[in-house]
Amino acid sequence: MRRLVIASIFGFLAFSLMMVSSIEAACAYTTTTGKVIDVTSVDKQGGYSVSTGGDWDYYFNVCELPVTSPSSKCSFSQTPQAYQYSSKWNDCYPIGNKGNPKVAPLSPTDETKGVKITHDAFTYQNARRELVINLKCDQNAATTTFTFDGETTGAVSTYTFTGSSKYACIGAGPGPNPDNPSDEPIMGQYGIGGLLLTLLLVGFILYFIIGALVLKFAMKKSGTEIIPQFAFWKDLPFLLIDGIMLPVDLIKGCMGKNKYQEMA
C-alpha cells in the first residue's frame, strides 16, 4: 500500500511538471539549435480586428488570450480562436480551435524568418475553418498589425493572416517594452508556469512553518516533534526507493507470469 501511495505521489508531481511545461511551451517553437521563439507576448487584450473592406471582418488572437466577441451572434458551444463577422448580414462564423496552436518556422530552411501559427479547424454547420497566422521576424516592430491574406476553400477552409513582430525573432523572447507598455508580455518574463511553480514552493514552505507553529504552541511539542510528519520525512529516502521499485516489481511479475504461461 505504501508503495502505491508513493507511486501516486510521483505520478502527480510528474503530471504537474508536464502541465507547467505545456503551459510554458503552448505558443513557442524550439529551433534546431535549441533557441526558443515564444510568441505568447504577441497576444493583445481583447484580440486583433482586421477589416477586409468587404462584408466580413475578422477578430482573433495569436495564442491564448480571449477575443472580445463582436456580436451576440458570435456565441458557440465552444469558444473558437477567431470570429468571422458581418455587421451587414449580422452573421458570425467560428474559425480555429482554441488551446492547442501548432508553431512552425515560416521557412523550413531559414528559421530566422519567423513562425507560422496554426489553429486546427473548428467544425460548425458541417464546415471546417482553420486559422493560420504568419508572423514575420522584425526586430524593429514596436507593435503588431495584421493583414488578411485570403481564404482557401476545400474540405477545410483556411483563413490566413500575416503580421510582423520582434517576438517572432530568435532570441527575442517575451520581455517588457518601455516605449510601449501595452506591448508588455503577460506577467512579464515570469510566465504562468513560473507562477505555478512559485505557488507550489510557497505552499511547501508554509506547510512547514504553520505546521511547526501549531505543533509547538498549540500542541506543546518540542524537538523534532515540531516538524510536521517528521517520521514521514525521515523515511522519505526509503519510501522513494519503494516507489521506484514498485513499477520494477510489477514488470518483473508480469514477465515471470508470461514465462510461467509459456512453460505451461
UniProtKB/TrEMBL annotation:
Q: List, alphabetically, the GO terms of the cellular component aspect.
A: Golgi membrane; phagophore assembly site membrane
Output the InterPro entries linked to this UniProt entry: Autophagy-rel_prot_27, Man6P_isomerase_rcpt-bd_dom_sf
* BP-aspect Gene Ontology terms: protein transport
Recorded topology in the membrane: Single-pass type I membrane protein
Keyword presence, Membrane: yes
Location (main, coarse): membrane
Localization per record = Preautophagosomal structure membrane
List residues traversing the bilayer: 190-215
* A Pfam family hit: ATG27
Q: Which UniProt keywords apply?
A: Membrane, Protein transport, Signal, Transmembrane, Transmembrane helix, Transport
Q: Which residues form the signal peptide?
A: 1-25
Descriptive protein name: Autophagy-related protein 27
Q: Which organism is it from?
A: Naegleria fowleri
For this protein's source organism, the top of the classification is: Eukaryota, Discoba, Heterolobosea, Tetramitia, Eutetramitia
